[in-house]
Amino acid sequence: MSHPLRTTVDDFVQGLKAFERDHITQNRVREFMDAHHLSAEALKPYTYFRSDYYTRNLIYRDDLFEVMAICWQPNQKTAVHTHNGQLGWMQMAQGEVAVHNYKYLTCDCPERQNVVGLDCLGGAQHLELERLNTNVCNDGTGIYQVDKLRSIHQIENTDKSDLGVVSLHVYSLPFDSCVTFNMDAGTCCRKQLSYYSKYGKVEGDIEHRKDGELRVIG
Question: Which CATH number applies to 5-197: 1.10.10.10, 3.30.420.40, 2.60.120.10, 1.10.10.60?
Fold first, then answer.
């Protein structure tokens, strides 16, 4: 197996933009990311760690692609969530995470899934998900993907070191909200997403946002 090319953020983004002239497919982007690796050092201008929640840090966004670094302290994790029906790819720049995959079984308002531009409105008061498996992702495991068939998961920092974990996420199309699941209550709701930083600069109003789920979906 050949080692991926260590690349710069600018070159990585330009490589993704080259796909915009043709069809964006899951395999084409995965092959590109397998061959071009962004190190934790290359991502340093976009990495911010918090002890109270993990951070979503926007690197690049246009109509077709969203590129983001997520920074994780020990034991931090997302809610179980969807990706609004979009394609997604994750590459580990530093450390290791576990990805717990789920399958939708049933809920009490399935009609809310039939919405143009959204995977679901959310709002179920009774639902059932089946936990399928767990993927351990690190620098040596390649690209983790989400698609319309594998679309519900939870990401958890299970790394044993105290360096902090950095994961790189690419989505097409970009999305600003998703459905999150309360596994204890058996309910779901649609949550707006936000970034801790954009293009290397921390958002000014981040300190007084207290609803963790608003910020922390990956």
Answer: 2.60.120.10
* Res. 105: pLDDT tops 50: yes
What does the pLDDT read at residue 91?
A: 96
Residue 2, pLDDT above cutoff 70: no
Residue 3 has a pLDDT of 58
Average pLDDT over residues 134-139: 94
Kindly state the tokens that stand for 44: 């340093």
CA distance 64 to 68: 14
Among 81, 85, 153, residue whose Cα is nearest residue 119 = 85
- In whole angstroms, what is the distance from residue 205 CA to residue 123 CA? 28
Terminal CA-to-CA distance of the chain, rounded, Å? 29
The phi and psi torsions of 125 (rounded to 5 degrees) equal: -100, -10
